[in-house]
Specification:
The structure is a homotetramer. By secondary structure, chain A is of the alpha/beta class. In chain A, 38% of the residues lie in helices and 15% in strands. Chain A has 14 helices and 17 strands. In chain A, a hairpin with a 2-residue loop joins strand 1 (26-30) and strand 2. Chains in contact: A-B, A-D, B-C, C-D.
């Protein structure tokens, strides 16, 4: 079974992407490591783009799934009542929402973040009777027609092939233009030409946009503007949720409760497709079946998601994230920034970016490729792909984390 | 753990749907049977809306998955090269496509039918440079913004909350208006007001639209019109594919090779989220990453899908479907049509509809509910929900099939 | 002042059109005749595309205008109260509407037909709360963005450069598909994919579409379908109104009262820009200023329009039209149809088409050009420009009418 | 003929607007004066919203028109070659464009400013292949569907009744946000979410937006940004052109040559409907007939327009405007600003605004009404209608100008 990559290259559409960057046949994986078919191992600083917060094949979680399968637990049941779903809802309410005093109803959408965002669009438009939605420059909310309209990348947008309407983009935190001042201006002016929006979609940290980190105070002010103007705030927690920044929700420290929260990626605990939309009870306005999808009841994912909640709490994962945050920050400041004064770093929790915007366009891309050659899986993001995105599993141990960072350091030093 | 349904009712969004119709807590399932938490059993004539063609927890398939999990096989890897993916591509090409002389490249989309249809929209628009797409009255292609535009139900469309553009609806096979004549008229007339479409989206049997079955000759003529006018034909095989009508693809007997085929639901063999888009090599025009999605590489689903191919061939499932087709057809003609002359029946393979359009609007809905009380899970579809949709797993045995049909017969007799 | 055409050719945009077909410098005109700068004369079978129903420089009408100007009557006053406007409204109500028992309010739009149709779109959408509008294949309603969306010509639509939404085209009277049956089908089917429209826009005779004449009974049935479904009927009378078919409104003989009527072209009586929208009092829903335009009060046009009403009644113009209708019809049947069996003729009142659809595509265009060389100004219309459109002033005398028809006859004979 | 206003009130649509504010029956007018049917006279500081730059019934111009009519000059001829059109084109090139070294082709659109802007939209979209257009907050470009999309007033936009797409609004000169910096930011960022626009539509002075006056240096910088990014610049000169600011085109002093210029309102010299679009020869991309309109050849307007050019030059009107500019500016600064420190004034040439934004919302509206009672016709504009707009004919004599200003001063003093 050696070197079978050609079977994919010959038969899979040109649209394939990550396999071009990480061009090995992978066969197995465990926590922070991935193993190729011929036995080579890689440290994973990519985590399935944020899907594997608790590591690959986390033993505690996978064992629950195997047990469930062996016992003929239901695998697929649309949105019928099932024991696995009841367990998950019960656990999520009691261990995640209630301790944080968040009052949310739960909606199960098609098993992807983009689907949850599509559902959010339906809700905010129906509830407010408005059509416009505000998104931020640099935002990524998905690749289906509704969510592409909220995604700012010109490449992604062109791919839609049709007009993308009903979205207003405003600058994100940190832009040269004062974003909130601009927002208030267009909301107050009856000659702004911009219809009052139904909602604002927010990522507290923009992953695809280049690891842009919004200040908590700014988030709180944004929330206040929304409240004052009866605009709903939707937090897209697909990548930043599930503990990535050291709290379950990435907005907790801003002291807000968004009207809608969309979760996916790591919510199932083990990389299985699932999404979850939380919404305040008073905006629960869709009729039965008004949004649906065949796989909105991925029971295996529910089993994983329940196990993940237990695992996280028992293992104090959020606390570890905060420790790692301090460690990564210090490492970047001491070891990376010192390499070249044009390098910039930013991040929160365990999502960090090393920004090579000051260098030639190809620089970051080449560093990412060389890191892979050197045993670390790491992707790029941001404008012109100039930001190296550090996104290891939350559960990575200190030794592997350091090893990975050292590879990055050495690769940068060799490349610049 | 008895009567925990209230946990869902209190916490899940009002959008939940099937649980209202089949209001029991289900815990286990095996092939054509589902079991509640307190042990009651139901015959499944619903099959997860066509997702469970090979039954719940098909032992052959599930064992492959358990084995894979135990062995730390990769669960999630976006579109990196993996052994599980290579296996599936190899098997699908060699056992499904090549024997049928179909030359298709394979594209893995987000793990749902709607996502594959969104991808198809991008491809046909990019390849042709046109924006319009033709869909049929009665069509269902999904609930995200791009695919809702191709879905004809006014309820589904209203839910989008925004204008749905770039779609032209034409009558389906069997309408009072000659559909193909109408199609040719609008294509030829430079004053039709209708821009030449990029593609026509076709279901060979409309499931949601009310089990409307297109004649193979009509399908072949439609294909010819597409070829003549350089319009792409997209077959949405999400519900009708994977053997549902007795051939792997539902269009095989029409003698055509559509430009694009979208598959999902039963493709993973066991109810796990997955979708697959097939496209002719010459229209493989998307750039790397131009459509993507976190869960486009659900490795467990690949393992299931590979196992399913072996299972189907070894067990001669398609032949059994054709036998069952004859049996169901005869049963409906003899036992059901005789109940009342206003009843109509139609279908193909193992998807059949009993049409109560001639009765009061609530009739069909009530029959479906009573069937559930009598131990059969069966849903409604079509205009005003007036068609009872028979959709058992393909692998149901004759005894259970007959038992289910007898329940339906008795329920109808009691209801009219 | 000879041969100054080059001044236009060098300085006017390429978009210029009729000057290419009728490439002489015209200086004067009187009733049915136009005169070039060097004294040549032409019979006008074009009438400014229907703007000059009462002839060029109709003496009675023009004298009223000169008198008004000499007296410092107001020329421009937006929608302020003016004596000229009061006179016109009074006369139009008392001499046109009241005798026909039509109860309409009057709205003055920007001075062109397209502007009145844009206003009609605003009204029907606001009144019904719906967005879709139905137009007919072959329709022409104008060239601004709202009205292009209702115009079926693919050339006109492409020119918009953007997506044209919210319009559904259905076949017109006489199509191979039964138009009204199709209309009822899509209105009744909740899976037609077509949102209930706010209105249907109708021309009783399609001028640009190729002189297609709707049967009065069909129009009455269409009206009934509108009433039954609470859909507004808008009659675009821009070309067919003002007596063109022998009644002031072209729909009178159908026994209907449309909800909205748009008038322009000949309404001012002398070729000055003006439009007028009539609407039933109960749908008069726009707020003050919700549609406007600088030239909605062209006072000279009001003076002309008032004079035209007096002129038409005193000179019994509508009766003359009916006489001419019989004469033209007989001429075409006897003199033109006999030339070649592939020729078709149709029309009503004083708008008639000679259809060369059965011949080579260039045929009709060449005949039009040769007619001009032979002293008759006549344009083409319809699919591929294959219909020669006979559109003389209503006030043409029998001698000139015959002379023009004879030129056409001879030209056709020489050309085929 | 006394008190016939009721005829209009009973029969005209509720959409009527200015007649509500200036509720008298007007019968005659001469230069800067309007006269009611019962002989009262008013000073006109409104000028038909900028249509009557050369006064009502300017004797020189109107005499030319009367002469033309008496001589059976052609009134209506679509876009055929006519002597009146040749004269106008010749004069406009030789007396307006060539002296300014502007190389423009001329396009005659439907007879209104909105129609010229609709045509401009077609050109910029066809020429660039892009769809987006940038307009400024506060802009007014018309009330048909294409141009409403460029108009920022929320009231006007709501009236469209449909989605208004393909327009991006950015702040105008003088906003709190640095408009050009913002513009450059969104053009440079491939994650701005904003597609590169085909064109930017500019008013050098926003009339409807509240007499906002752009600095010439800012205009020149905007022009440079357009050039650098291959974006077309369209100057909407409908209200500010034809000498209103003391130069024929309002952008002359900025030292730029816009790619497209749209003119209407005063271009005909006497209030007759006409529009004119100027475009650089290299972007003259529309095919014959791709934009059209029945009244694109209003011959009387051409006669007036030719006469107006002679009149303006012979009477040195532009110089008088500059004198009046100084006079009005001094008057406002000395007599009006001193009334209350919350009053603001701004303007250029002979368009000036007195801004009551610092007062109660009804203030400005009431002052406008009282001015009318006191014999001056003057309208409001801007956000919440808080700007009194001074817009007298350019040819007003000093005595009447002073009399009008004194009325305004006294009315303000009495009102605050």
């Amino acid at each position: 079974m050696k070197n079978n990559i050609h079977i994919i290259e010959e038969n899979e559409s040109n649209v394939r992407y990550y396999c071009r960057r990480f061009a090995k046949e992978f066969a197995k994986a465990k926590m922070s490591k991935m193993f190729t078919a011929d036995g080579a191992e890689y440290i994973d600083f990519f985590s399935g783009a944020g899907t594997l917060n608790y590591g690959h094949n986390n033993e505690y979680i996978v064992n629950k799934i195997i047990e469930y399968l062996k016992n003929d637990g239901i695998i697929h049941a649309l949105d019928m009542y099932t024991s696995a779903k009841i367990d998950f809802i019960h656990k999520f309410q009691n261990k995640i929402l209630i301790p944080r005093q968040y009052d949310y109803k739960m909606m199960f959408c098609g098993p992807s973040g983009t689907n949850a965002n599509e559902a959010a669009l339906k809700i905010v438009r129906k509830y407010t009777g408005r059509k416009n939605v505000i998104a931020f420059m640099g935002a990524f909310h998905g690749m289906t027609l509704g969510s592409i309209a909220l995604t700012s990348s010109s490449f992604a947008r062109r791919g839609a092939g049709v007009q993308l309407d009903n979205t207003i983009f405003i600058p994100y935190y940190g832009a040269d233009i004062d974003s909130l001042k601009y927002l208030e201006m267009i909301l107050e002016d009856d000659h702004s030409g911009i219809e009052k929006p139904a909602a604002i979609f927010l990522e507290t940290v923009q992953g695809e946009g280049g690891v842009n980190v919004a200040d908590y105070k700014w988030i709180a002010e944004l929330y206040d503007i929304c409240k004052k103007n009866q605009i709903l705030l939707v937090c897209d927690e697909v990548q930043t949720g599930c503990g990535r920044v050291g709290t379950f929700f990435s907005f907790e420290k801003a002291g807000i409760q968004p009207d809608i929260v969309t979760l996916s990626k790591s919510i199932s605990g083990c990389g299985l497709p699932m999404s979850l939309l939380l919404l305040k009870p008073e905006i629960d306005c869709l009729d039965a079946g008004e949004h649906n999808g065949t796989f909105r009841g991925n029971q295996l994912a529910f089993v994983g998601a329940s196990a993940a909640i237990d695992y996280v709490i028992e293992n104090d994962v959020w606390k570890k994230v905060l420790n790692n945050e301090r460690y990564i920050k210090a490492y970047l400041e001491q070891e990376i920034l010192s390499i070249d004064s044009k390098i910039q770093c930013r991040g929160r929790g365990m999502i960090w970016g090393i920004d090579f915007g000051g260098f030639e366009e190809k620089t970051c891309n080449e560093i990412s490729k060389k890191c892979f050659e050197n045993g670390v899986i790491i992707e790029t993001s941001g404008r012109r792909g100039s930001v190296l995105k550090i996104l290891p599993p939350l559960v990575i141990n200190r030794e592997e984390l350091t090893a990975g960072l050292n590879v990055i350091k050495k690769t940068i030093e060799d490349s610049l």
